[in-house]
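Researcher: Next entry in the queue.
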Amino acid sequence: MAKIKYTKTELKQQRDALRRFERYLPTLQLKKQQLQMEVRQLELKIEAKAREEEEARDDLAHWVKLFSEPIPFEQYLRIGEVHRSVNNIAGVNIPVLDDVTFERTLPDLFLSPPWLDDGLDMLEKLARLRLERLIIEEQHRLLAQELRITTQRVNLFEKVKIPETRENIRVIRIFIGDQQTAEVARAKMAKDRAMKAEAQR
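Model: Structure for this entry, 201 residues:
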């Protein structure tokens, strides 16, 4: 607990601080709730993307043996551009995947196997799903980090700052009350002495 002064000025400062803490706490609690909701939704999205990836891999498993032929896939399919933007959730800037473009070269129909187009479609789908999942995981990481910090602040206000400030106010008020009582008692004693001195004259 920080050292406090037992003065009316300190009492006013402590009351002002308590008002600030009590005004700021609901905002922090609201931010915490919003972040918790967003983090939970992102966890569900990550699970959904992982399932989509798994389903795509299962589809691929039926004819994956064909991929064992030496085909230079990078010659036919490359990620061109990844278009990202930034979204703000509860004061946190998170990346958003807007679009992914692929550069595709048409294979020679006479020199390439007939399944190559389907294989390239599947690789494109898997690459897109992987990028989407990575962006969502980055969003989750950033928001979970902010949630941890916000939770610490909420706990600091609820469990430390507000109770400490209330206790400071209580102690200062008791001290000032005792001082005022002592002043009244001293004034009465001085008055009694003055009256006795006057009576003796």
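Model: The mean pLDDT is 87.
Researcher: Noted, moving on.
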